[in-house]
Amino acid sequence: MNVLKPMGVGIAATMSAAMIIAVAFPRSAKRWGLTGIQIGSIRPVGGNTDSIVSPGLDGRAESSTAAEFASGAWINSEPLTLKGLRGRVVLVEFWTFGCYNCRNTLPAVKKWDAQYRDQGLTIVGVHSPEFDNEKKIENVRREVASLGIRFPVVTDNEFETWHAYKVDAWPTIFVLDKSGHVRGKHVGEGGYAQTEQLIQKLLAEQTSPANTISGGNEAMTDKVVKTDEEWRKELSPEQYYITRQKGTEPAFTGAYWDNHEAGVYTCVACGNTVFSSDKKFDSGTGWPSFSAPIAEKSITEESDTTHGMIRTEIICKRCGAHLGHVFSDGPKPTGLRYCINSAALKFVKQ
Ligand SMILES: [Zn+2]
């Protein structure tokens, strides 16, 4: 199967790295009318690292251990390493928010994140920008939030990770097995069924204990279920009262109602990223107020009829913590006001 490439490898090889970036990734590189698909065959458990891709892919041994992520800014998670993700299937997608082909792949990628995250899949979006406005972290954050991306995203402004994976077009997806080996690659849009089948197969594979580091990313990927006693021990009395007993802090007393710094707000109980400073506004109520959560999947809403009122309660989707309520008197365009307790949040400056 032929792979579409925007520029010949031979040409790129004769140019300097700077020229490659300048020349090899024209806007048209993203306009994949067709797709190139290379899904590796499935290596038997405990098998050796035999070649798993069709010949001609840069001559690269795709079954070798995948390169670590180069340093960049992480959105939606703490910095991750492939080593720390051993034991999980990892899907790495190279994308940039301005690329419409990348946007077209998002529904599938987000669906896999929602469907398989709890079964052991971690998706990492490596944001390798094409244009200057795509390099600005605030723009990346805004787009990640507005596109409803909940999986971790790491910026790759210097194209270090891009080059380490020998990528030459957006979007490109790699699927890594639980031992960190690249087992499949897909360039361009489409091939979703094949990629999903590969994810399912790799999730079903067993790994040897030596390759598995348990618990490394538990908090990020799984639902957090704890007993009341455990919560009581872990949280301060105020945090416990608010998150586990649906309490409300007095207005103008919390740490964040008047916080104007840029960053994200995580659930104080489990670390799930729930709100961003991008959507924070001054409501005058004395509670931190947001016009939208960072992603719909980060919270759940439930009807709350306590205290003689009908309100909609906002709950952390990962651990069930009560965060606050949402009202319909917020600013445009959502018209919503998420009224959240400072004590239910932890601010992470960015
Ligand atoms: Zn939580």
What this model shows, in words?
The chain has 350 residues and is of the alpha+beta class. The chain has nine helices and 16 strands. Strands 1-7-6-3-4-5-2 form a seven-stranded mixed beta sheet, with helices on one face. A six-stranded antiparallel beta sheet has the order 10-11-15-14-13-12. A hairpin with a 5-residue loop joins strand 13 and strand 14. It is globular, with a radius of gyration of 22 Å. The model is unreliable at 1-62 and 208-221 (pLDDT under 50).
Biggest sheet details: 7 strands, mixed
Helix content: 10-25%
Low confidence ranges: 1-62, 208-221
How many E-type strands? 16
Order of helices and strands: HHEEEHEHEHEEHHHHEEEEEEEEE
Q: Strand-residue fraction?
A: 15-25%
Structural class: alpha+beta
Bound molecules: zinc ion
With strands numbered from the N-terminus, the spatial order across the biggest sheet is: 1-7-6-3-4-5-2
Number of helices: 9
Radius of gyration over alpha carbons? 22 Å
Distance, first to last CA? 44 Å
Tell the overall outline: globular
- Name the average pLDDT: 80
